[in-house]
Amino acid sequence: MTSGNLFALAVQRATLATVSRLSRHLRVVLLVLAVALLAVPAAASAAVPGTQTLKYKFGPIHITPGQNTIELKATDQRPTVPGYITRFKPDLVRVKDGSIPRVDVLHLHHGVWLLNGNPTFAAGEEKTIIDSPKGYGWSYKPSDTWLVNYMIHNLLPNEDDVYMTYEIDFIPLSSPAAQGMKTVRTKWLDVEGLQAYPVFDALKGAGKKGKYTYPNDEPDAYADQRRPRNQWVVDRGGTLVGTAGHLHPGGLYTDMWLSRAGKTVRLFRSKAKYWEPAGAVSWDVAMTATPEDWRVQVQKGDIVTVSGTYDTKRASWYESMAIMPVTWSPGDTAGKNPFVTDVDKPGKITHGPLRENRVHGGGPGGLPDARRLLDGPILSGNSGVPTGTSSITVNGFVYGRGDLSLTGRKGRPPVIKRGQSLTFANKEPLKTVWHTITACKAPCNKSTGIAYPLADAKIEFDSGQLGYGPRGFTAAANRDTWETPKNLPRGTYNYFCRVHPFMRGAFRVKN
């Protein structure tokens, strides 16, 4: 991987528009960044005497309407003296009043703090608190290069300004408490490995008995690779001291396994604890982290593997993730042999319910039931474009025809014949605004929240995020049009935008 100085120089010269021209080594670092990562915690422990609690804020960050982009910037918001970082607590607050925005309004998809080019601390929307076990810490020097990669998802067509905040526990090197501290590093493990946008789809009904495990239930997951991407071949002995998983809504747990000499044992299962009343369908969740005394011996040549499991009984989960980074101390001998001692113990959550997750949705929404509306215009032609009109445009956060928020004829579901397709085109003037056409269960007209709507239609379809962005470092599909499947049977079809879920629409298929 690129050295810290070279990495810093490259990043200073790079922008999202030029990221495709970065060196191969810089790409490897950024690949890790472009995910909704969860940092690597152990269960919370009391701060040792001599520990300082320091508070920082990164920004201000201006949020444009509906944005869902990834940015990378340097920061000087960090300690001024050398020492050890033992705890990291992230958050997102508004500039104007310091309030924490609701998750159904502004969404901290991920924030990743890189030390000398290495992803070290991070947060997903779960906002897991990172806490190293007593006696272990991340070594820090003021000469270190710090960069922040962040993806803040604006679910509404409004502007805003925020700070990413982080509170750290820090032991100065001059403190007696720093004596004898063991240095830890972060090893990032992802089921999709070092991919540009490491996601997979967990479709409704996939897997076994309503559970879909990736990559286990996907035989061709790594067909184009020489070896599985979800593995780490340990390059030197040491001790693993902490881990936790990162999942998107619908996720149930991540698992970490260790293989040695033909034997395999599970090291830890990080479970999703949903506070969400509707179950495993939203970001109202906390992941379990390893207990304070979790120590695992690893040897050179060991293979550490991770997987992620989703609930596929209720809905499809597009662009899902399963990440399980691990904190380890190279050369440390305090670990237990997992083939002799059972280290797979239940974990502990690092926080309780968060107030910003209070709007769940699913109540009266004031939108009509499209099944009861009159037909809209009949669209003809294989492309779904009627004579004298254009395809259905998405502009101003509204579907041009059949949007449930529109009144009159434009709000009625447009009609196509069986065997034809309806074309959608994203024509937003702001190129950072991407939209999807994602099937949802009728009537799909209830109030928007973190648990509603869902991609839970009986017949599934999804357009991907229509729009353009730096290839390889974005969620954009890098196309702005999409056609509905031509094999849809007769009926009324509801859909929503996964990026801006208040957007709802419908169309109709007739013989």
Describe this structure in words.
With 511 residues, this protein is mostly beta strands. It folds into two domains: 354 residues, no CATH class; 151 residues, Sandwich (Immunoglobulin-like). Helix content is 4%, strand content 35%. It is built from two helices and 33 strands. Strands 13, 14, 17, 18, 19, 21 and 25 form a seven-stranded antiparallel β-sheet that branches. Strands 1, 3, 6, 7, 9 and 10 form a six-stranded mixed β-sheet that branches. Strand 26 and strand 27 form a beta hairpin. The longest helix is centred in the N-terminal third of the chain and has 10 residues. It is globular, with a radius of gyration of 24 Å. The N and C termini lie far apart (58 Å). The N terminus is likely disordered.
Q: State the assembly state of the protein chains.
A: single chain
Calculate Rg over CA atoms: 24 Å
Q: Helicity level, as a percent range?
A: under 10%
Any idea how many domains? 2
Low-confidence runs (pLDDT<50, min 5 residues)?
Answer: 1-45, 383-390
Indicate the mean pLDDT: 88
Count of alpha and pi helical runs: 2
What profile does the largest beta sheet have? Answer: 7 strands, antiparallel
Could you say which overall geometry the principal axes of the C-alpha atoms support?
A: globular
Estimate the strand proportion: 35-45%
* Category by helix and strand content: mainly beta
DSSP, total strands: 33
Measure the end-to-end span.
Answer: 58 Å
